[in-house]
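Hello,

I think I submitted the nicotinamide-adenine-dinucleotide job twice by accident. Can you confirm which output corresponds to this input? Input:
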Amino acid sequence: MPQVRQGVAARTRKTTPIAAVKRAVPKASHARGEPRSVFSGHVVVVTGGVQGIGEGIALHLASSGATIAIIDVDSTKGLETERRLSRQGLAVKFWQCDLNDPEAISATVDAIWRKEGRIDVLVNNAAAHGPRLSLLEYSVRDWESVLRTNLTGTFWLTREIARRMIAHRIAGSIVNILAIQSEVPIAGYGPYVASKGGLEALTRAAAVELSAHNIRANGVMLGAIYSGSTRGAGPVDSASASDFEKVPPTLDRAVPNLVGRMGRPSDVARAVAFLASPESSYLTGSVVVVDGGRLLNRGTDPFSPPPADRPRGHGGGIER
Ligand SMILES: NC(=O)c1ccc[n+]([C@@H]2O[C@H](COP(=O)([O-])OP(=O)(O)OC[C@H]3O[C@@H](n4cnc5c(N)ncnc54)[C@H](O)[C@@H]3O)[C@@H](O)[C@H]2O)c1
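Support: Only one job matched these inputs. Its output is below.
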């Protein structure tokens, strides 16, 4: 049985009674004039929640009263994020787990359940991109690595959590983070594109199979959202979800969608919150597209310009 490592800050932090945290958070929301939270008393698992979009989702749901369990492979960022969000009075704990490891996933879900007593919502947000290579160059090893994280690991985590939700008669919600690249692929990310297409199909399969147990499964399909992976600066060690709310005007202007700006983590978080809450109780197997209208405005993607000298295709079987 693999050892489950919970964030050090969570273990050593002077414990604030959970009830006190829950009372404090809605107070902050009300101060901003927001309606009373629907997530009080709910436990939400967010994968890949240590940075970027995942952190934005964790921040938003925690600010709405949820207790958050962040699952991620990166323990350095995980502990930083846990500390950052905990300092704001939010109930957030980091759990280190590699989604490539089914045993670690099962052990982590066990540990979260033992600690929190329930899981109401699962947000499958973590993803690997893999090296940027033509499909003609991809190795089986690199292909499998991306598929194992984005699809197999996500399936396993979903299975482990759904089984427990069913056993405890919890009306759960699963929200999978998809990408418009499965509709309009970016050259060089074949396995990522395939994994997101597979995850969209898995969302529908889960909706069909879990509906009898009062568990819904929906997807949020993203266009360009400002995060570490789109900032293009390589690993971003210190940026928080709030940093990614401030998009440089040049990037905003460059995005060829209908809204005329890049998405922020908060744009994604609001859609996830809707699908996670009973307000969307009539939705299952649905995909909410959060892309500023990008799919309706197909043109050259400035983040992926085709090489000028790319040979033009021709119809298969036609002599050149
Ligand atoms: N940023 C965008 O424009 C965009 C567009 C479309 C879809 N998305 C999707 O949104 C989600 C978040 O994107 P992001 O830009 O914040 O990505 P990111 O790369 O900044 O974050 C992904 C997180 O997943 C974690 N992760 C990767 N492999 C893991 C593993 N094996 N086990 C556990 N954790 C693992 C990473 O450590 C990281 O914290 C992803 O699903 C991505 O595909 C993003």
